[in-house]
Amino acid sequence: MSNVIRIKKGLDISLEGAATESIVQLPLADKYAVKPDDFMGFTPKLLVKQGDVVTAGSPLLFDKYRPEWVVTSPVSGTVSLINRGEKRKILEVVVTTDGKNEFKEFPVKPIRDLSREEIIELLLGSGLWNFIIQRPYGIVANPKDQPRSIFISGFDTAPLAPDMNFILKKEADNIEAGLEALAKLTSGSVNLSVNAEGETGVLNKVKGASVHRFEGPHPAGNVGVQINHIAPINKGEIVWTVDVQNLAIFGRFIKTGKVDMTKTIAVTGSQVENPQYYTIINGASIGSILKGKIKLQKQGDSVRIISGNVLTGQKVEENGFIGFYGNQITVIPEGDKYEMLGWAAPRFNKFSASRSYFSWLMPKKKYDLDTNINGGERALVMSGIYDNCLPMDIYPIYLIKAIMAGDIEKMENLGIYEVIEEDIALCEFVDPSKTEMQAILRDGINAMIKELN
Q1: Mean pLDDT throughout 52-64?
Q2: What is the pTM for the complete model shown?
C-alpha cells in the first residue's frame, strides 16, 4: 500500500443536508440539454435544427475551429428548442425524450487491440472526449497533444460532496476498462488518488493505475492539489485529468459501443426534504430531479439551486438543467434576509473561518448557511488567511494581484499553470475583501491562452 500524503492546510465547511447512503433510480426526464458554456474554449456551431430526431450519441454541435470536437445528445428524442442569448449565442440545445433512449452504435473491440488513434477517434466521435480536461488552464484537452501523465481524483472533499466509493461500488469493471483505455493515451503514468480513510472502498482495489492515498481537509480532494503533491506541472508540460465517475462512463462506452451517460448524483443541502443519491442521465432537467424535494421554513422564503457544490457550482433555475460535469445539486437558503447589528451578536449559528464568532467552540456543529456574503467588495487585505486555505506552493494573493495588473511574467512565476477556479474557491470563501477570485483567475487563464497561442 502506498504512503499517505497528508494535507494540513485547508478548511472543511460542515453544512446541513448531507446525502444519506441510499440511491433512487429516477425515470427518464421529459427534457435534457447540452450547454456549450460548459466546455471551456468551445465555439459552437449547430449540426441540428429544431424538429430533428436524434439518438443518444448523435452529434448536436461542433467546434468552429476544430470540427472533430463535437457535443452529442445524452438521450434519444427530438430537438425541441435551441435557446440563444445576446448576438444569437447558443446557450442550450434541448432534446425532448422519446422514452426509448435508443443509442447510436459505435464499433466495439477489445481494448488491448485498440490503438491510441482509435481510442481518440471513438472518444471524439461519441462526445466523451469532453470529459478529458487539460492542465494547465482547465480546458478540454487537445487530442493532438501528448500528455506527460493523467490524473484522476477518486474522492471529493467539497462541502456535501458525494461519496465516490459509495456511488461507484458496482462500477469496478468499467473503471478498470476506462483506466486501460487512458493508459494508451499517455506515455507516462495514470494516477488515481484515493481517500486514505476509505481503505475498503472499490477505488482502493481497482487495477491499472498508480494509486496515491491522501488525507486532510478540503481541498485535498481537488485533482490540482494532488498533482502539486505528486508531480507538479512545469512550464511547457501538459497533463490530463478525468473525473472518476466519467472514467466509468468511458469504460462502459469502450465495452459496449453505446454512449450511456447514466451517472449518480448527490442531491444535498439544508433545503432538500430528503438528501440522498439519484441515478440520472447527464443533462437532465433540474425540475425532474428536485420535484417535490425542496422544503421552505416559512411562507415567502426562497432558495438558491446550485449545479455543483456551494464553492464552485453554478446557480440554476428549477427549469434549468444540470451541468455536463456536475455530480451534485445543492439547495440552500437564498441570502435575501439581513440581520440588524448582526456583527454585534454572538452568532452561535454562523460559521467563521477566523474565529470571529463563538461558533468555533463547537467544532462538530453543522451549519445552515445562506448565500449572503455579509458585505461588499473592498480593497484586498494582505494576511495569511489565504495561504492557510491553499495547500500548494503558491501565494494566492500575489497571483491574484499579478492577474489584476495583467503581468504575464509574474503570473507564470507565481504558479498560474497549476491552478484553476476550484483550487482557489476556498480562498474566495474566506476572503474578507469579498473579491471574486475565481472570476479573476479565469480572466488570467484566458489572458495566458491568448498570449501564448
Answers
A1: 97
A2: 0.94
